[in-house]
């Protein structure tokens, strides 16, 4: 039975070149990049090569890129680091109700510590207009944090226009973007759009788990969250995981061109949409304007977990939403006002450049079997 993996928004298979690079850095070039001898210098050079490779994904200069343990740490560092660095200027934060939990829970904690938070909710089409973000800003707004692409239904927020709108009314406000689901799949230019902070993660683009990056605009000050050394220029203490960082760089370089990927994603999405339309009792949730590589559908009456297990028994893998939620009811679908019948039965299908039309056909085939076999409640 052929394995069909359509849960790439949760994680991706590490590409062979990245895995080989990690092994090399663990067994051959294994020096500490902070050591002053030749092996340390060699490891440091490998780090800087990776920094250049990953910086291209975010459209920034290598010296503005800092490595972390993943998207969650990058988001935490950005949110807490910015809010605490700016606390004398104010304690108001603007974000959305559909952010990844690593942003939502960070903001919730800051709220418990006395910050005031405005949470914007997308309309039924998944849209938050830039002017609405600007209208939410005040004289004491110190941080705006809005994701580039939603990890559950693929909403794409117009970050470039949001940045411009916020700058016009609150020039001193720091702007952070969680670009974890966009990096490597969409053209990004952190420097061009004049954003202050942008997060990315290796394992979403065929790199290893345990490594991420945070872009920090030149001149932007944030406070570190981890202390104990001058690593990453004082932003993130701790011996750098050179094998993971180097693999991250190779994975970034191995990605096909964005245009090529998106031609594939549009064809896969179209194939999926045509198949879903032929199935009775399946609802397409993702907005038309969503990115083509993240799709949310539902089979009302059949619990997500029940369908997931049925699909997995046939070696077909999707998810019910964010992997970080571990099966909890989706805060994204709930925030959008969808009925419980859809929220409780939602399935997320997410593509990588390694997927094929045959994968979509197999998923639809097994999904149809599940609709016939599983009891609706």
Give a verbal description of the structure.
- By secondary structure, the chain is an alpha/beta fold.
- 39% of the residues lie in helices and 13% in strands.
- It has twelve helices and twelve strands.
- The chain has helices at 16-27, 38-58, 71-85, 101-112, 130-136, 159-169, 242-254, 258-278, 304-313, 331-335, 340-343, 357-373, and strands at 4-5, 65-68, 92-96, 116-120, 141-145, 174-178, 197-201, 212-216, 283-284, 294-298, 316-317, 346-350.
- It has a seven-stranded mixed beta sheet, sandwiched between helices. The chain has a three-stranded antiparallel beta sheet with strand order 9-10-12.
- Helix 1 (16-27) packs antiparallel against helix 7 (242-254).
- The longest helix has 21 residues, at 38-58.
- The two termini are 30 Å apart.
- The relative contact order is 0.17.
- The mean pLDDT is 95.
Keywords, separated by commas or semicolons:
single chain, alpha/beta
Kindly summarize this structure in a few lines:
The protein has helices at residues 16-27, 38-58, 71-85, 101-112, 130-136, 159-169, 242-254, 258-278, 304-313, 331-335, 340-343, 357-373; strands spanning 4-5, 65-68, 92-96, 116-120, 141-145, 174-178, 197-201, 212-216, 283-284, 294-298, 316-317, 346-350.
């Amino acid at each position: 039975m052929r394995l069909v993996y359509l849960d790439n928004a949760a994680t991706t298979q590490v590409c062979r070149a990245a895995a080989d690079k990690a092994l090399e850095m663990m067994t051959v070039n294994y020096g500490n990049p902070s050591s002053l001898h030749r092996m340390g210098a060699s490891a440091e050079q490998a780090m800087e090569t990776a920094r250049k490779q990953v910086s291209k994904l975010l459209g920034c200069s290598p010296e503005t890129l800092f490595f972390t343990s993943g998207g969650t740490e990058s988001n935490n560092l950005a949110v807490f680091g910015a809010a605490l660095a700016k606390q004398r200027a104010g304690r108001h934060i603007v974000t959305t109700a559909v952010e990844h939990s690593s942003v939502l829970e960070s903001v919730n904690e800051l709220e418990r510590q006395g910050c005031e938070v405005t949470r914007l909710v997308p309309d039924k089409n998944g849209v938050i207009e830039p002017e609405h973000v600007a209208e939410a800003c005040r004289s004491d707004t110190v941080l705006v944090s809005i994701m580039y692409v939603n990890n559950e239904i693929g909403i794409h927020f117009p970050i470039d226009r949001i940045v411009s709108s916020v700058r016009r009314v609150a020039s001193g406000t720091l702007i952070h973007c969680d670009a974890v689901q966009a990096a490597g799949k969409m053209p990004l230019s952190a420097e061009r759009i004049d954003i202050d902070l942008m997060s990315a993660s290796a394992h979403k683009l065929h790199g290893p788990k345990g490594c991420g990056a945070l872009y920090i605009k030149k001149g932007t000050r944030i406070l570190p969250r981890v202390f104990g050394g001058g690593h990453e220029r004082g932003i993130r203490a701790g011996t750098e995981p050179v094998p993971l960082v180097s693999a991250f760089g190779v994975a970034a370089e191995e990605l096909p061109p964005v245009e090529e990927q998106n031609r594939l994603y549009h064809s896969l999405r179209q194939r999926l949409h045509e198949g879903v339309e032929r199935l009775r009792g399946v609802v397409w949730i993702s907005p038309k304007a969503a990115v083509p590589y993240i799709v949310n559908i539902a089979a009302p009456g059949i619990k997500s977990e029940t369908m997931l297990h049925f699909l997995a028994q046939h070696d077909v893998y999707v998810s019910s939403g964010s992997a970080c939620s571990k099966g909890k009811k989706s805060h994204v679908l709930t925030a959008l006002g969808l009925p419980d019948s859809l929220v409780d039965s939602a399935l997320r299908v997410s593509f990588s450049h390694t997927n094929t039309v045959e994968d979509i056909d197999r998923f639809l085939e097994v999904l149809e079997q599940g609709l016939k076999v599983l009891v609706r409640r």
